[in-house]
């Protein structure tokens, strides 16, 4: 069904349970085995509290086979990323983005209430529960629409607890929060930043920060969201202080190439980016995103607060 650095995922028939399942077969290498054992532990914890089983993927079983940890999951549908890709990266409708965003934040709130931080939220780790879709005309082409908007989180191999600030690098690059890049220590809010990036991607069809290096990444943030606070730049750890000069980001002077500078220049401000893709409720979405993508982690909305935002609570049937 897919593979990653950890190993591969196989679709299997469970003869006892009489159902199709997904089995994650982990490479027989110590660090991947350790991550798999963390994942099993987290899944058991989540399963104990997620009575209805609709927040996170359900663990069916696990076993160790020839030094490969094998984790048996319920079988789910495609990831949000796969779905976007098969649609030619055409964005989801704002109403679907609202549904997906609400469930994503409910799952994140559920984890945070249990003092767990996912640390690797991205469209690849959010799966539709069903793989059924319908095709609808979309200009010259047709577009897939999921039959059900139900989603679940997967991949808890990097999940950690929130009992103290952490300093090591987490998250897949494009969804990584500024405090992680600057080495300021991170906690729950790093998940919230990732959610903000994901929502922009779902309504635009494109990765918000398409980059592979730290200085360019920070410059892109400034381009989309405005200048980084000086006090955060001043506290950057020794690995990140080279990105800062005289209390501001060393950009464009520090750019590795003209292409890098151009990639940053062509990014629009957050408001414009959303307006390009969203017709109704753009104002609410922009306001929500500004709360999720605040530089200062303590200023970012918590998951429960975000769920009370007008983007999710307003009466949507009054379409003008």
UniProtKB/TrEMBL annotation:
Give start and end of each Protein kinase domain. Answer: 1-312
Name the Gene Ontology molecular function terms of this record: ATP binding; protein serine/threonine kinase activity; protein serine/threonine/tyrosine kinase activity
Return the InterPro entries for the record: CLK_kinases, Kinase-like_dom_sf, Prot_kinase_dom, Ser/Thr_kinase_AS
Keywords per UniProt = ATP-binding, Kinase, Nucleotide-binding, Serine/threonine-protein kinase, Transferase
- Report the enzyme's class at the first EC level: transferase
User: EC number(s) of the enzyme?
Assistant: 2.7.12.1
At the top level, the lineage of the source is Eukaryota
Cellular component (GO) terms are: nucleus
CDD domains per UniProt:
PKc_CLK (cd14134)
Which Pfam families has this protein been placed in? Pkinase
Q: Does the keyword Signal apply?
A: no
Q: What reaction does this enzyme carry out catalytically?
A: L-threonyl-[protein] + ATP = O-phospho-L-threonyl-[protein] + ADP + H(+); L-tyrosyl-[protein] + ATP = O-phospho-L-tyrosyl-[protein] + ADP + H(+); L-seryl-[protein] + ATP = O-phospho-L-seryl-[protein] + ADP + H(+)
What family is it from?
Belongs to the protein kinase superfamily. CMGC Ser/Thr protein kinase family. Lammer subfamily.
Q: What is this protein called?
A: dual-specificity kinase
Q: Which organism is it from?
A: Cocos nucifera
- Output the lineage of the source organism: Eukaryota, Viridiplantae, Streptophyta, Embryophyta, Tracheophyta
């Amino acid at each position: 069904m897919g593979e990653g650095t950890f190993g591969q995922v196989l679709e299997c028939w469970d003869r006892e349970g009489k159902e199709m399942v997904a089995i994650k077969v982990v490479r027989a290498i110590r660090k991947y085995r350790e991550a798999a054992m963390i994942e099993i532990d987290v899944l058991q914890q989540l399963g104990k509290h997620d009575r209805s089983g609709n927040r996170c993927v359900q663990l069916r079983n696990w076993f160790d086979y020839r030094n490969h940890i094998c984790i048996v999951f319920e079988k789910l549908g495609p990831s949000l990323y796969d779905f976007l890709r098969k649609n030619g990266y055409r964005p989801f409708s704002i109403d679907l983005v609202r549904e997906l965003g609400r469930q994503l934040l409910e799952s994140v709130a559920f984890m945070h209430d249990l003092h767990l931080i996912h640390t690797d939220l991205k469209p690849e780790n959010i799966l539709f529960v069903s793989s059924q879709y319908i095709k609808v005309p979309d200009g010259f082409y047709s577009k897939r629409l999921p039959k059900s908007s139900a989603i679940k989180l997967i991949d808890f191999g990097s999940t950690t607890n929130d009992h103290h600030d952490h300093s090591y690098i987490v998250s897949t690059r494009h969804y990584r929060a500024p405090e992680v890049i600057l080495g300021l220590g991170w906690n729950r809010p790093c998940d919230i930043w990732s959610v903000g990036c994901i929502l922009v991607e779902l309504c635009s069809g494109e990765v918000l920060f398409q980059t592979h290096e730290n200085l360019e990444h920070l410059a892109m943030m400034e381009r989309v969201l405005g200048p980084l606070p000086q006090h955060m730049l001043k506290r950057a750890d020794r690995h990140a202080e080279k990105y800062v000069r005289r209390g501001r980001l060393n950009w464009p002077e520090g750019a590795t190439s003209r292409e890098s500078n151009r990639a940053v220049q062509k990014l629009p401000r957050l408001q414009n980016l959303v307006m390009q893709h969203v017709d109704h409720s753009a104002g609410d979405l922009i306001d929500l995103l500004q709360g999720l993508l605040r530089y200062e982690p303590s200023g970012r909305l918590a998951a429960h607060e975000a769920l009370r935002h007008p983007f999710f609570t307003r009466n949507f049937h009054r379409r003008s």
